[in-house]
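INFO worker-7 received task bundle
INFO bundle size: 2
INFO processing item 0
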Amino acid sequence: LEPKVLLLDEPLASLDRKVRKELQTELKRIQQEVGITFFYVTHDQKVALAISDTIAVMRAGRLEQIGSPEEIYSTPRTKFIADFMGAVNIFLGRVIAGGGEVYLESEGGLRIVALDKKDVPGEKTSISVHPEMIDVSLIDTDLKRDNSFKGRIVGMIYQGDFIELKIRLLNDKSSKLITVHLSSMLAQKLEPSVGKKVLVQWDKESSNLLQG
């Protein structure tokens, strides 16, 4: 009998980045050519996003969420999945719904806006936002968005095509640091530096409601 499913358990884990990316493409080609299901087990989120048609996230042996790579990355249902998929900016607090929007009063006293997702079951307790969804501008800009907060850059990590900024929000009583990925092109214009005051902003569509 021909196999219906091929189990792959971290086959690319020990390879360097260049070879790993090349073999990801090759694995997808082989799967499409042979026409059977590949069941790929991995702890590498980027690999899962790159090669999967459907992703299932498990925790302690239980299925937390199943969906397309875009669904799992952009709209995780729980705090665990959001954190696992790289949404390092997670705000805990009290959620208040109303008029198609949701307002979260964070533990640090911030008011964060998101769209009301009625299709997500369970109590909503937090909001996540990915680093690349946050814009950074000079403190004196006139641009105002749904979520707009003043902050100060306290750390910078060069990543080649982007710079990872660690920013302390000035009105956050919890002294929470948020992470922002600033493209190298925008960084040349903004000229970020540690100690510089900036304005961080993101749209309510980029705020993702979480349960648990």
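INFO item 0 finished
INFO processing item 1
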Amino acid sequence: MAFVVTQACVDVKDKSCIQVCPADCLFEGGRMMYINQDLCINCGACEAVCPTQAIRFDEELDGDESMFVQVNEQFFEGLDIARGGRKMGLIEHDAEFVAQLPST
């Protein structure tokens, strides 16, 4: 069980989630935020402040949204994330699915 950032975050990146996360597990990609499941403590603080309701509990994802579990995982493949999201800052990279979405 984990929290996941979904498509509602693409090209929005409000970033209020980063400020409230005690585990520093949210990372800013080029077009959206991503949650690192290895760092997340499932507290739900990020979900409560997301203005677009893009952050959802993985077991509550329906239909096409369920693919965002893998989208969040793919973002971190091959990245050296020795530091948390606030310390890393913007990472000019996105998961392939997000990178290929048309701009909104």
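INFO item 1 finished
INFO post-check item 1: The first strand starts at residue 3 and ends at 5.
INFO post-check item 1: The beta strands are 3-5, 26-28, 33-35, 55-57.
INFO worker-7 idle
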